Amino acid sequence: MIPPGAPAGAERLAAWTEAELGVQGRVRDVVRAPAEVLSTRGADVDPTAGEVVQLAADLVATMRVSPGCVGLAADQVGVSARVFCVDVTDHPKTRTHHGTFVLCNAEVVASSRNERAREGCMSVPDLTGDVKRASRLTVRGQLPGSGEWVEVATDAFEARALQHEIDHTDGLLFLDRVAGAHAIYPRQTYL
To answer: What is the pTM of this model?
Structure first.
């Protein structure tokens, strides 16, 4: 569901599938804090390089087998690189979404309407926290395989997920963004 007036690139991003990568994704182990790779800014990558294409496929495969996971960055599988995947399609807080996609060397080019909301992370499995993030966002990045640049505008939960993953590529966890200890909570498990 793409919002009306979306910038060029939104349709391309929504049409992307991991089949374009031409390689089978492998499930990788997820790294947990305080692993050093999680606090290190990732290197910019050549999105056409074979190892980056394989990493992209691996990120999607790992995200898909991880319950509740809506995004995964390269550092979370132990690789210090500016690559991440996102798919918020089935999340109940989603308004706008662009399906499953992977971006390389992504950056926020515009943001507005900051809102505070609860976040969690596979690399910090026992905690959640209240984080203030933009609820309207424009992101620019490259697609793995083709290296094609795309720019996409989004909002609500997908905007939050993109900022969370871009933070990972910058060596930041959501815990680095909370207002203080009073905004961190034990993760609730519902049976």
So the answer is: 0.91
